Amino acid sequence: MSEGTFLVSLTGQIESLDILAPAGSSWHCKYEFVTGPDWKIIGGLEAGLSQTANVVVNGARVVFNLPIEITFKSTNIYGWPQIVISVYRGVQLEGYGRAHMPLRPGAHRVDVALSKPQASSLLGHMGALFGYQPELLQPKMLATTAGNHLIQMLSHGEVRVSVNVVMQGVRSLGYDFGRGKD
Where are the alpha helices (DSSP H) in 82-156? Predict the structure, then answer.
């Protein structure tokens, strides 16, 4: 690690989806991390895809247990890591969610609210009659403010993420996030 930089390591898993899932349905999720321009990935995966989780009982929790592990190097805290999650039932999008990773070292549980894009034009509403639904070409855009006010979204479920945060070199740069959970 060079002088003037710090490391942030995130390990954990996308545990489960809390949604009214019908019996016999299949679910999977994707994730990707989004950071500011000064952040570099020095280990781990920036994005991942889960296995298919099948629901046996109506309303049962959808369990993914998708591991995440990534280490970043940066010179400042601007652009702190965010995770963007996309959840699908079969091939149909069920929602997007995004959350900043915790600022404090230690073990954390992050509940990521999901929302689903809604059709906003006559053409979009006509497409819905034929089974088409709006999707984002780049879900990473949710981690920025560019144009998000133009997207109509409907709240739809929640994803539970457990993450362990480890930092190195943060205090030497004058940042103090406090102590982690004891």
Answer: 122-129
Cβ distance 19 to 94 under 8 Å? Answer: yes
Token representation of residue 29? 């999720």
pLDDT tens per residue, range 127-138: 555 666 766 656
* Of 78, 83, 53, nearest in space to 68 by CA: 83
Task: Find the distance separating the first CA and the last CA of the chain, reported in whole Å.
Answer: 27
pTM over 0.70, yes/no: yes
pLDDT digits (tens, 9 = 90+) for 75-134: 989 999 999 999 999 988 888 899 999 999 999 999 999 988 776 655 555 555 566 676
Report the distance separating Cα 126 and Cα 122, nearest Å. Answer: 6
**Separation of alpha carbons 44 and 103, rounded Å:** 19
